[in-house]
Write a structure and sequence with these properties.
Length: about 240
């Protein structure tokens, strides 16, 4: 989501930092919709956070906490699809970023039930949850032109830990799913068939994992650069006041 004037773009990796140029903010109607959307999404991810804490306190263990937040996680992560085409950034880039998480939520974690007890799932769920609470809060306050410095600082700082944490959880979860996908032939299409087309989901998941190699360093260093740019500008502005 973006705020009026020089707005923060959704075109980031999901763990902080932004890409793209500064663009014009949305009109009054769009702003109203975006405020409501961001408030709802912030509340949704807070529900997930509270669910994780309550389940941990009840069980006394962090293992298999996924089941305690499975439904709200699916709902609110899939709800991010509503951002595509609305935010002032590349539709293709936004769609790619949103779909990558939706893919992991449904096509990996939901579809390969054996990985749902893996600790790696909790790793990316915690990273996503903290990230999204900060991100949607950031967008909400930006739209209202009352952005607290603490939220801005958190958005452009906590990704230093959250991004590697989330990526590690995602990769480990996909890796854990591979044996079960190969054994079951999940989503795979074998020849011969009337479409004369074959698809190996196992190989596809491996290619997805490999795609992280060029993407992760590029986005991470971009975000570090963006952090220096945004926070240093903020500090200079505060000193001049």
């Amino acid at each position: 989501m973006a705020a009026g004037g020089c707005a923060a773009s959704r075109a980031d990796n999901g763990y902080g930092g932004q890409q793209g140029r500064c663009r014009r903010g949305p009109g009054a109607l769009a702003t109203g919709y975006l405020v409501i959307y961001n408030v709802v999404m912030t509340a949704g991810w807070l529900v997930i956070a509270v669910g994780l804490v309550r389940a941990y306190l009840a069980k006394g263990s962090y293992h298999s906490l996924y089941y305690s937040i499975e439904k709200p996680l699916k709902f609110f992560q899939t709800g991010a699809l509503l951002e595509v085409g609305i935010v002032p950034s590349s539709v293709v880039l936004t769609a790619f970023q949103v779909m990558s998480r939706v893919f992991l939520t449904w096509a990996v974690t939901h579809s390969v039930k054996e990985v749902q007890t893996e600790d790696s799932v909790l790793l990316f769920v915690v990273a996503w949850t903290i990230t999204e609470i900060i991100r949607y809060s950031f967008y909400t306050f930006s739209l209202l032109n009352h952005l607290p410095y603490l939220i801005k600082w958190a958005r452009y700082t906590l990704f230093i830990v959250l991004y590697p944490m989330g990526v590690s959880g995602e990769l480990l979860t996909i890796y854990a799913a591979l044996p079960f996908v190969r054994q079951s032939g999940l989503y795979s299409i074998s020849l011969p068939n009337k479409y004369n087309f074959s698809f190996d989901y196992y190989t596809f998941l491996i290619l997805v994992m490999i795609s992280y190699i060029p993407i992760f360093p590029q986005l991470y260093f971009h975000m570090l650069h963006q952090r220096r740019k945004v926070l240093s500008h903020t500090e200079e502005h505060r000193k001049s006041e």
